[in-house]
Amino acid sequence: MKVLHIDSSLQGNNSTSSKIAKKLIEKLDVDNAQQQQITYRDLNISQVPHLTEAIFSAFHTPEAERTIEQQAAAAVSDQLIDEVSNSDILIIAVPMYNFGVPSTLKAWIDHLARAGKTFAYTAEGPKPLLKMPKTYVIATRGGLYANTPADTQAPWLEQVLKFIGIPEVEFIFAEGVAMNSADDVLSNADARINELLSA
């Protein structure tokens, strides 16, 4: 079982979202009794570049016609897409910053959602090109936002992931981090993990 673990918190693998993701990975291993191959990417360390006109133009230039700089720009995106497409399970650990996702995660998504690579425009409308069985999103928040109009993360993440071909997106919310004890937050998340894996 190939697992891709994406961290986007400023605190990296010391963050609450990352700790919950690791707990999920442990329980997936126990429940599936399969050998795991884990690919880990901390978006604060890997420095996925934010989109620029040069990068965007590289995406839309035929491979044989790309400059050396465009080839390098496209290669970064290709690697990120390969990491996802070669995985059986994708786990995204994401805190809420100023009511949205971290800019590093947005940059990662921007490299992942590419016309002709992960989705295509057809006469019938957009068509997803990735084929992944499942994604888990660990969403940590200081307050309480899930299932309210103030939650600008979950609907967007679910929409964009399904758009590129990841139809099953499960959310594990760890909310009230600024209001409750860390033990309570982790306990609630653990209960949600158990619920998902027993379904």
Outline the fold blueprint:
Blueprint: E1 2-7, H1 16-32, E2 37-42, H2 43-46, H3 53-59, H4 68-85, E3 89-95, H5 103-112, E4 119-122, E5 125-128, E6 134-140, H6 154-164, E7 169-174, H7 182-198
Parallel strand pairs: 1-2, 1-3, 3-6, 6-7
Antiparallel strand pairs: 4-5
Helix pairs in contact: 1-7, 3-4
The total of beta strands comes to 7
Series of H and E elements:
EHEHHHEHEEEHEH
Computed CA radius of gyration, to the nearest angstrom: 17 Å
- Overall residue-averaged pLDDT value: 90
| Ends distance | 19 Å
What is the number of helices?
7
So what's the oligomer here?
A: single chain
> What share of the residues does DSSP label as strand, in percent?
15-25%
Enumerate the strands of the largest sheet in spatial order, edge to edge or round the barrel: 2-1-3-6-7
Shape assignment = globular
Helix content bin: 40-55%
Structural class: alpha/beta
Largest sheet: 5 strands, parallel
Ranges where pLDDT stays below 50 over 5 or more residues in a row are: none
Model description:
The chain is α/β, with parallel strands linked by helices and 199 residues long. It is built from seven helices and seven strands; from the N terminus they run βαβαααβαβββαβα. It has helices at residues 16-32, 43-46, 53-59, 68-85, 103-112, 154-164, 182-198; strands at 2-7, 37-42, 89-95, 119-122, 125-128, 134-140, 169-174.
